[in-house]
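Suppose you are handed a protein chain with no further information: no name, no annotation, nothing but its sequence. What can you learn? This example shows the usual starting point.
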Amino acid sequence: MQPAVDDDSDAALRQRVVDGEQEAFAGLMRRYNRRLYRVARSILRDDAEAEDALQDAYIQAYRALPDFRGDASLATWLTRIVMNAALMRRRGSRRMAEVIELGAEQSVEDLAAMREPGASDAPNQPERAFQRTQARGLIESKIDTLPEVFRTVFILRAVEELSGEETAQVLGIPEATVRSRYFRARGMLREALARELDFALEDAFGFDGERCNRIVSNVMSRLRERPED
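A reasonable first move is to predict its three-dimensional structure. Written in structure tokens, the prediction is:
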């Protein structure tokens, strides 16, 4: 009887896949799906494209697993494959965009709050769940605006909570570079969110438009009916 997939180490799962057990590869995908999707998403900034890139990367990884030598961790190896697949897909999209533009008759183009609402959100708290969804959407949109070199580091460090050393290994850059890019990304994200907050505060408790007209109309009606009030 095979051991449960969740209980296996990466090395054991890899060996089971090499031995022909496809179900073990499904377990490996489930183990790293969230991290790898987020990495692809940080590069492509599109949910569907990230999913497609991740699937392409998994196919490549499945075929290459017998040749995996273990120079890096399996997680790092998978992440690099996903990054390459995402970059290839992005380059392909750009080439297609160039072809479409040239062929046209006329030439006409971002804490840790990204978590799903947790079980602690009671069913009778829909407003809180909605607010968390809105906040998460705002943060995701601002992360998307970060330059790629900062965005991917931020996703790995802040969202996936990899260490600086692990992030450096995944990206193949010095740990000092990871630190500088991470702090720069945090600064840019903080500035972007602060600007958004400033705009929101300007509109907070708005009084013009329909509300203003309604209050004026109601008061004038009351004055006309009972001027002594």
